[in-house]
Each structure stands twice: as structure tokens, then as C-alpha cells.
Design goal:
The protein is α/β, with parallel strands linked by helices and 341 residues long. It is 31% helix and 18% strand. The longest helix is centred in the middle third of the chain and has 18 residues. The two termini are 23 Å apart.
């Protein structure tokens, strides 16, 4: 069963370069969360800090009552056993076949017999669809298979927390869809707490229970999926809908002159697109973090964009906003630098 991660006031710098400041959020136990942000905003640094590979300058990371920031190395090593990590490229050993790659953590960190190791490793490989590929080398398989092998290796110690760094990197849209469905099914089966760093907007819109956005050295927003997908916050709206109009520029944020030129030319962000139904499990069984479509919007009096939550297996009555009901958006509005939850 997954455990919650409570992050309070986390700040990280490299020398004089501030990466992010005062990040505060709680990753709910057993739920899937996604962390978004423009390139260079420190998403991968955030993952490494959560698992204790990097020390923050300030703040706390509390798991099961223990603050990872202040733990001694021996105790930190024990807490790390709660984690499984899938790196961007799978991080497989090129000279080992897939079976030995998957079995490596068991041989390194446990005293299990080879027969036990083989049983567990083959179970995890079957779980990610790699049965029959045990003898292949990483250089002989596709990028998607390497991702799945890395995922199987992350699962062999039965982690309660799974950190996943850009799983869609280098994958085509079809393989990305397959791995997204795999995350949903895995979360239902193992009930672990997932945090996925991604740039893929379709993944962000359809997979997670919660979404966060790092921007301009702070956490712009974190909360339930529907909260961010219906948000009028300019940076959240621009990023989640992949628009050029708004405060995010090519380098990171636009300067005042660029924003003024946009406003003078009458450029505005288009209406919010419909909120798609969240991906369900392959067998139709519910997950712990799954919420009824439109529940957050109804509970908070938010009218979602027209056409929201419509899918082949979705029947939900949620009032839809019209263009007249859509608030005017000032793309030059200053951002709230506090984290919303």
C-alpha cells in the first residue's frame, strides 16, 4: 500500500542558482500525481530530492513520520527501500540481459535465493508485458521495451512509492498510450503512490489523480486533476493547453514588453478545451485515487468547459460553462507565487 509524502517549504539551489523555492505539497497515498513544468524548471531535481539523492537547502520531506532531510545515512538507506525509480532512458546495464537487469536490486539488496529471485523477477517482467524477452540485451530492443524493463526493475522490491521521470521521452504516441495504460493498471494492482514527471500533455490530462506545475522557481499550483484542467490561472492554462499566448516564453517567462505587445494586438488564450474522462483500468476495476468524473467541479461550484467528461463509458451531469460565463483573462496578470492545494 502506498504512503503519503508531505513536502513543506522545500528550497533547492546549486551555488547561486535557485532551482525552486518554498515548494509545499502532499502526494496522497496510493494516488497518481503528475509534475509538469517548462524545460529547466527542476522537475528531475525534485525527484532526486524526494528520494534523498540531493539535499535541499531548506524544508522537509516527511514519509511515515520520518523527515528524509534530517535522517542519518543509515536510516535514509532504509527509507529509500520504499522507493522504486524509473529513469528517463531506463538506465539499464548494457552488458546484462533483461532478466539480470530486473533481478539486480534483489541480488544487491536482499538475501533471497536465486530461485526466489527468478520467481519475483519473472513475475514483474510478466506484469509489464516482457515475458519471453528475458535473454535479450538492452541494445536489441525498442525504447518502449527498455522503459518497461526499467519499470519491472523498479517494481521488484515491491515499492510503496514509484517515481517516474519522463516515461514518454523517445516514445511515439502509440507507445506512450500503452505505457500510460500500464501505469493506471499497475497503480490499481500494487496501490503504490506514483509521481510522474512528464512533458506529454495528453498524459497530464488523462492519467493522474493530481497535477502540479513548477514554473519560474516555484510551485505554481498543485491539486486534483479537474482543478488544474479547469483553471483560469494564466501559466497553468497556457501550459496545459500548449499555447504560445501567455506568460511562458521560449526561454521561460516573457518580459513585460512581450506581454504588452500581446495585449495590444488583442491576442488571448482560446477557450479551455473539454476535460477528457480519466483513463480507467483495463479490467474496469476502480483505483483508490479514482474520482467520479466531474466530482471536484461539482463540489467546488466550477463550471467545466463545454463537452467535458464525455466518453464511451461516461455519463455525468455537470453544468457546462458558456462563452458568456468564461471569465475575462488578463494574460499579463501577475502570478500568485504561493502553492495552491
Amino acid at each position: 500500500m502506498g504512503v503519503a509524502i508531505d513536502v513543506q517549504g522545500l528550497t533547492k539551489s546549486f551555488g547561486s542558482q535557485l532551482i525552486w523555492n518554498d515548494v509545499t505539497l502532499t502526494l496522497p497515498a496510493g494516488e497518481i500525481s503528475v509534475m509538469l513544468g517548462p524545460s529547466g524548471t527542476g522537475k528531475s531535481v525534485f525527484l532526486k530530492t524526494l528520494v534523498g539523492l540531493l539535499k535541499p537547502d531548506k524544508g522537509s520531506i516527511v514519509i511515515n513520520g520520518a523527515d528524509l532531510v534530517t535522517l542519518k545515512e543509515h536510516d535514509l538507506y532504509e527509507v529509500r527501500k520504499l522507493f522504486g525509480v524509473l529513469f528517463q532512458d531506463g538506465a539499464l546495464f548494457g552488458s546484462m540481459n533483461l532478466f539480470d537487469n530486473v533481478a539486480f536490486p534483489l541480488r544487491e539488496h536482499t538475501k533471497k535465493t536465486e530461485s526466489e529471485i527468478r520467481k519475483i523477477s519473472l513475475e514483474k517482467m510478466e506484469l509489464v508485458g516482457l515475458q519471453g524477452a528475458e535473454d535479450k540485451l538492452p541494445g536489441e530492443i525498442s525504447g518502449g521495451m527498455r522503459k518497461r524493463a526499467g519499470l519491472a526493475r523498479a517494481l521488484v522490491l515491491d515499492p510503496e512509492i514509484l517515481l517516474i521521470d519522463e516515461p514518454d521521452s523517445g516514445l511515439d504516441p502509440v507507445r506512450t498510450s500503452y505505457i500510460n495504460q500500464l501505469f493506471i493498471d499497475l497503480n490499481a494492482q500494487i496501490d503504490a503512490t506514483f509521481l510522474i514527471v512528464t512533458h506529454d500533455i495528453n498524459t497530464a490530462r488523462t492519467v493522474p489523480d493530481n497535477i502540479g506545475l513548477l514554473y519560474h522557481k516555484h510551485l505554481a499550483m498543485f491539486g486534483p486533476r479537474e482543478m488544474l484542467l479547469s483553471s483560469e490561472e494564466p501559466v497553468v492554462r497556457q501550459f496545459l493547453n500548449a499555447q504560445t499566448v501567455g506568460p511562458i516564453g521560449m526561454s521561460e517567462e516573457k518580459d513585460a514588453d512581450e506581454l504588452a505587445a500581446e495585449a495590444a494586438s488583442g491576442q488571448q488564450l482560446p477557450p479551455l478545451p473539454p476535460i477528457a474522462p480519466q483513463l480507467g483500468t483495463s479490467n474496469g476495476e476502480p483505483r483508490r485515487g479514482e474520482r467520479p468524473a466531474g466530482e471536484w467541479c461539482r463540489a467546488n461550484g466550477v463550471i467545466p468547459p463545454p463537452g467535458s467528461f464525455q466518453g464511451p463509458h461516461t455519463s455525468v451531469q455537470v453544468p457546462e460553462r458558456t462563452l458568456d460565463q468564461r471569465p475575462e483573462l488578463d494574460v499579463g496578470a501577475s502570478l500568485d507565487h504561493g502553492a495552491a492545494s
